[in-house]
Amino acid sequence: MRLRHRCIHLKPGLHGNRLSFTLGSQNNVPAVITVTDIAAMNNLIPSILSISLYLLSGVFVAVRLFAQQGSINIRRPVVITAAALAFLIHSLLLYQGIFNVQGMNLGIFNAFSLVSWLIVLMLIMTAMRKPIENLGIVLFPLAAFAILLELNWPSDHIIHGNGPWQLQAHIMFSFLAYSLFTIAMVQAIILYIQDKHLRNHQPGGFIRSLPPLQSMEYLLFQIITVGYLLLTISLLTGGLFLEDIFTKHLTHKTVLSIIAWAIFSVLLWGRFRYGWRGRKAIRWTLGGFITLMLAYFGSKMVLELVLSR
């Protein structure tokens, strides 16, 4: 009986922006495995753990909202603790996925994961002081979905670390603004459902677990105001310090961001001047959010997934 020995040769090389290794043998066609692929394999177990904890946190919130009063009592610290554990693992995954020797990898799914990470961070910090943890019924599964996308479809869009500080500031304020407006979007949807139930004289169900309608509206406009300020700073840093903000492949992103800023400007002015609230405020909030998401993630989707730029 003769044993066959197969030699595998690792040959490092560069393929575009990716460091890769070529697996070669005498009889097989060489295959290229990138560092991104190796990182994805190493991150499998932490990703599954973080996804599971996020989904468990979402289930906890759902039970708090929909369980009959007195039947199951899941306290707020339990929800926050489970989400915080998921967040910590998510932080490690995000650091490994975004930061490398070339700079920051802000491919579309890495960017989506970063936004969801910021959303969870803001939600946990705010939930320690205000009853906002119920938004996790949407936001925690959203973070789990972001990790799943990042794990299965890694993408590259390198922002070099030696770039100007103005660019880094623009990116930071943009992500913070997107994250806050996502929270505002979920808050607006829950507010719409709450308003509809109260108009139809149906205060039962999960509505009884929510804060009063006026408190929900006040919190919504607090979130929108902070997000609006961050978006304003993002547009200012982009317009004043970045020369290519109106280049061909960025024009639609810039224009849609300005339109979203104008929508939120009208909304805040209407709130201050005329006391807009209820469904009118919700419609303007959702319109601004959709426009803003099209500006960034819509643009990235077309450039990276369709045009492969």
Q: Can you describe this structure?
A:
Strand 4 and strand 5 (103-105) form a beta hairpin. Helices cover 67% and strands 8% of the residues. The chain is built from nine helices and six strands; from the N terminus they run βββαααββααβαααα. The strands form two sheets. It has a three-stranded antiparallel sheet with strand order 1-2-3. A three-stranded antiparallel sheet has the order 4-5-6. It starts with 8 loop residues before the first strand and ends with a helix. It is mostly helical and 309 residues long. It folds into three domains: 1-35, no CATH class; 43-162; 163-309, no CATH class. The radius of gyration is 23 Å and the shape is flat.
Name the descriptors.
9 helices, mainly alpha, disordered N terminus, 3-stranded antiparallel β-sheet, 309 residues, 6 strands
In short:
This protein has three domains: 1-35, no CATH class; 43-162; 163-309, no CATH class. The chain contains nine helices and six strands.
